[in-house]
Design goal:
Blueprint (H helix, E strand, L loop, with lengths): L9 E6 L7 H15 L3 E6 H4 L22 H11 L4 H12 L2 E7 L7 H10 L21 E7 L16 H14 L4 E2 L3 E3 L7 H15 L28 H7 L33 H4 L2
Parallel strand pairs: 1-2, 1-3, 3-4, 4-5, 4-6
Helix pairs in contact: 1-7
Length: about 290
């Protein structure tokens, strides 16, 4: 059954692939079609078609720099955002982010990460002040009322990204993007949609992949997010080093697994922490971590 939102949801698809005939393009088209049928407003930022600038430079600021002798991109763009001095291409994308309830990043996995043009979108659009601050990050972040997710294709097979596979655990691969970028900005991160090695699959398998994604899309807007360690578990001060509180570390000495993929505390990683939303009985920190 299709789950329809009570009010119209806006979904932004940040898309990065060069070919109109790619599997990524087919995934994007299924996403747009299904979400429109659900009554969503769908906006697509096709980065290659837009010739989106990937490099983060002082050209992103339309007026004089605060410190031209020592250019620091983060500080300068934060002030430029506050004063309305960012270039129009950045402002346009920030407007889309602000309006979106859900952002889907659609891309082929390049070097265990996003393509350079998408990394440039992240660097330039998610500016300090607009997307994060030291006071507003992670589960207390600026975008805590929004959802985001990764949807991507791989060249490798699924077994190659197992804990005992040659590429290592996919949960570890995803941690920098899902925790260090999306969750850092406050997003509720939905489980990724991974299309394993479609270029080496027969047509019927690729069709099955697309239909599986279409089925997931019918309930995507009400999915529960992945589990992350909430800020409340940490001493959020420079004196305390932003470290886990001692009582939390003591508590986890008796647990079978660490808190998250990144906060493992030398213990086994919690299974599928970055690939599957886990019910409360599987993770005792779930209620604390939801945002």
């Amino acid at each position: 059954m299709c789950v329809r939102a009570k009010a119209q949801e806006t979904v932004l698809i940040v898309y990065a692939h060069q070919s109109l005939g790619s599997f990524n393009a087919a995934v994007r088209d299924v996403t747009v079609q299904e979400l429109l049928q659900q009554g969503c407003r769908v906006v697509v930022s096709d980065l290659y078609a837009m010739n989106f600038k990937a490099s983060a430079t002082q050209d992103d600021i339309t007026d004089e720099l605060k410190n031209p002798e020592l250019f620091q991109y983060g500080d300068e763009t934060m002030h430029a955002w506050m004063e309305g001095r960012l270039t129009e291409d950045i402002v346009a994308e920030q407007r889309k982010v602000k309006e979106a309830n859900l952002i889907i990043f659609q891309f082929p996995l390049y070097w265990f990460s996003v393509p350079a043009i998408m990394k440039g979108w992240i660097d330039r659009v998610l500016a300090q002040g607009f997307a994060f601050s030291l006071e507003k990050m992670y589960n207390n972040g600026i975008f805590k009322d929004k959802k985001a997710m990764l949807s991507f294709t791989t060249g490798a097979t699924q077994t190659m990204f197992r804990p005992d596979g040659i590429n290592g655990d996919i949960n570890v691969t995803l941690w920098p993007l899902q925790n260090g970028t999306l969750h850092f900005c406050g997003f509720q991160v939905l489980a990724p949609q991974i299309f394993w090695s479609p270029a080496f699959c027969p047509h019927i398998v690729r069709t099955t992949m697309l239909e599986g994604w279409r089925a997931r899309l019918k309930g995507l807007l009400v999915e529960k997010p992945l589990t992350f360690a909430p800020c409340e578990l940490f001493d959020l001060s420079f004196q305390g080093g932003f470290l886990l509180r001692p009582n939390v570390k003591e508590e986890y000495k008796s647990r079978s697994y660490g808190i998250t993929t990144g906060h493992h505390l030398g213990r086994p990683l919690p299974p599928d922490n970055q690939t599957r939303a886990q019910p409360p009985e599987e993770n005792n920190t779930e209620a604390e971590c939801r945002i």
